[in-house]
């Protein structure tokens, strides 16, 4: 009997479902960042708004990477439904706290897929995920650094204006 | 694509998994499967078989068993983009689920056998 399932698809049904879940997560992240960009812009934090616009675009790019990988491997990529995006925030700091939470949740989710692939010995998908793991180092660093600015600059006086200015300059250029 | 056939060409099909209620056969030649269930033999390609599995697994059997409402004990298994539908009782759903579960375990077993016998030694 031919192994017809394997002939059709490189990834298992379980990994395919997890990857589709990740597509949805990245789409959700992109929308959350877009809402953050809008909030920052409305409240006068133009550099932070620009920062979140860029983040939104990056998350969308990640989503497409997962989406195309599923299709290329013979799976069924599902266009996600994204709902329940928070539009209002109580403070400037809360925006960045939630941005870091979002990145941590993405990292955990990728680690979960990685663990599943190791269990199945799906090294091909593991190799594909390596890029995302490295990317998460940068994403979490940037989100954490932004929050750090609130500590080192302080929000008093023109503090928030200073923080906003510095958010635009956050970079991660480690070669390690 | 799904078509219904009256005759079972058992000579060229491989029995993947069967129970007293039905069976699933694989045709290597046509690269498809034949589901012998509920009085008919229906041909399923790769995509449709996965959709059938998803639709059957999606039925919440426990909820149906505990539901004392007046709705009829019938489930319609409609598979999008396939010209085939099953109208099944709850007992039939349980029987079909058992066949599908067995079939997919056999697929995995076959995958391991193929790897061990043909793919890895050379």
Structure, described:
The complex is a heterodimer of chains A (176) and B (122). Helix content of chain A is 74%, strand content 0%. Chain A has helices at 4-8, 13-42, 46-72, 92-120, 123-153, 159-167. Chain B has 3 helices and 7 strands, in the order βββββααββα. The chains are: A mainly alpha (176), B alpha+beta (122).
Structural class of chain A: mainly alpha
Q: Mean of the pLDDT scores of chain A?
A: 95
Low-confidence stretches of chain A: none
Number of helices of chain B: 3
Biggest sheet of chain A: strands, sense, closure? none
What strand order characterises the main sheet of chain B? 1-5-4-3-2
- Residue runs with pLDDT of under 50 for 5 or more positions of chain B: none
Which helices and strands appear, and what pairs or packs with what?
The complex is a heterodimer of chains A (176) and B (122).
Chain A: H1 4-8, H2 13-42, H3 46-72, H4 92-120, H5 123-153, H6 159-167
Chain B: E1 2-5, E2 13-19, E3 22-27, E4 32-37, E5 40-44, H1 46-58, H2 61-66, E6 74-78, E7 85-89, H3 90-119
Antiparallel strand pairs in B: 1-5, 2-3, 3-4, 4-5, 6-7
Please sum up the structure shown.
Chain A has 176 residues and is mostly helical.
Keywords:
heterodimer, A: 176 residues, mainly alpha, 74% helix, elongated, B: 122 residues, alpha+beta, 5-stranded antiparallel beta sheet, two-stranded antiparallel ribbon, 3 helices, 40% helix, cytoplasm (chain A), identical protein binding (chain A), iron storage (chain A), iron (chain A)
């Amino acid at each position: 009997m031919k192994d017809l399932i394997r002939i059709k698809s490189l990834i298992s049904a379980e990994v395919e479902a997890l990857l589709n879940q990740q597509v949805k997560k990245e789409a959700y992240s992109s929308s959350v960042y877009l809402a953050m960009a809008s909030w920052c812009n409305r409240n006068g934090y133009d550099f932070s708004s620009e920062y979140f616009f860029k983040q939104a675009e990056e998350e969308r790019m990640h989503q497409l990477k997962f989406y195309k990988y599923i299709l290329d491997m013979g799976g069924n990529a599902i266009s996600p439904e994204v709902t329940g995006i928070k539009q209002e925030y109580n403070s400037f700091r809360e925006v960045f706290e939630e941005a870091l939470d979002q990145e941590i949740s993405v990292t955990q989710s990728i680690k979960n897929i990685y663990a599943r692939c190791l269990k199945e010995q799906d090294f091909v998908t593991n190799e594909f995920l390596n890029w995302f793991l490295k990317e998460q180092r940068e994403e979490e660093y940037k989100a954490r650094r932004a929050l750090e600015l609130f500590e080192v600059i302080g929000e008093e006086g023109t503090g928030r204006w200073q923080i906003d200015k510095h958010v635009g300059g956050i970079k991660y250029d480690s070669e390690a | 694509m799904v078509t219904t056939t009256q005759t079972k060409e058992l000579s060229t099909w491989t029995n993947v998994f069967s129970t007293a209620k039905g069976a699933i056969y694989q045709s290597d030649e046509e690269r498809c499967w034949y589901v012998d269930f509920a009085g008919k033999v229906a041909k399923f390609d790769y995509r449709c078989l996965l959709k059938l599995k998803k639709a059957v697994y999606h039925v919440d059997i426990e909820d149906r068993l505990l539901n004392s409402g007046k709705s009829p004990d019938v489930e319609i298994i409609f598979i999008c983009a396939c010209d085939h539908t099953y109208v099944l009782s709850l007992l039939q759903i349980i029987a079909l689920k058992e066949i599908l579960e067995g079939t997919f375990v056999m697929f995995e077993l076959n995958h391991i056998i193929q790897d061990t016998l043909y793919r890895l030694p050379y």
